[in-house]
Amino acid sequence: MWGYLAQLAADSSLNIWIAETYWLWPVLEIIHFIGLTLLLGGLLIIDLRMAGHIRVVKPALTHQLLPFVIFGFALNLVTGVLFFVGDPGRYSINIGFQIKMVLVVIAGLNALLYHWKVSPLMEGLTEDSSSPLIARCTAYTSLAMWTGVLLTGRLIPYVGTG
Amino acid sequence: MLVTLESTAIARWVGESLYAYPALLACHIIGLAIVVGIFSMRDLKLLGFFPDLDIRVFGSLNRLALSGFAINAMSGLLLFSSQASYLATSVPFLTKIACIAAGMSLAYRLRPAVLLAASMSGSPRLASPGLNVMAALSLAIWMGAIIAGRLIAYLF
Prior knowledge:
Chain A is mostly helical and about 160 residues long. In chain A, about 75% of the residues lie in helices and about 0% in strands. Chain A is built from seven helices and no strands. Chain A is elongated.
């Protein structure tokens, strides 16, 4: 799959533009870092509350942070796709990148579980209610996956081919 | 002095070991997400977003934010030690350090106890002009720290 996507990317005119625009790569990296702070900053609060910590607010109130989490993810999806299109030969065979993508998919499925099953469950909870097991599992899975995404992403320049 | 730092055993380990530098960078990005993540959400809250989110949340997160800062102070110092004489005159590096110093002193001015007192004094959205300005400044400074930090790899 990665080989096919890499070929598709390498043949695109976007690939040439990204490779030839010398200032673009650091700008994309900066946006990618800002996106990750919004994503992780919001999720940290939502997930810790969902797991039963920071009990000074009702869990449902932390959901106001979600637009910033989604905005951070959108920034990183766009910049991430541009990284891949700009240097497909490097990413498609990189084990750090491949593991990172698997973790992003697991985090995404976990977010769907949150949206359909857990979020409605959190609506009725007060400051004092204890978090249901499924909420704690979803919260810790989310934190673990995104921590893994940060680690594997940062190690892409240092690890070998998959 | 910087050259002395670079020649210490630990600095040479950071520079020469196959694993030390990437492992420290990995710690550094976790700390970044914790510190800038929490502080930027606090700043957005002070700027009027998340109106229903109680400001006391950031009191509960204060220790975590400071732990993130400790992770990055330590990993950052070790990363610095391996390239001390180069970084000491690098404009993006010095800009990043200035941003962090400014961001942390604003974090002290915006510490949870102060915010709680401000929220007790009646303003439901903490819309006091001083806090707004400090929050906007803090957000800009932390974004500046990220921009400068990333540019260390590109500019001198």
